[in-house]
Request: fold
Amino acid sequence: MAESADPNLVTLGELGRQIGRLDSRFAELNSRLDKVVSHDVYAIQTAYTEQRLSQIQADLQRANDATGKLEDDFEQYQRDETKRRDEERQKRLYQAVIPVLLGVLSVAVAIWAVVSK
Reply:
């Protein structure tokens, strides 16, 4: 059977090649769609990461502030404790010195009383 040279007729081989080209175009389209979805996911993930980073920075700042306050409170406690110890030491000194001075004064008065007779 002789084939006519009708330009509108497509051979099976040509039809297979066109289907192959369509498959490759669908594969290209799918890869583009995968990239678009990936970019959307990336944008969402980036926004979440930035939000989380901001939260962590705020938490870190609060922790630094709390640490600074704790250090200031501890320094104040040390100053108060040093002052209390100094006052305690001074009280003990007076408690020791005053009776000794009274004893010396009593002895001096007794000696003066004996000498003045």
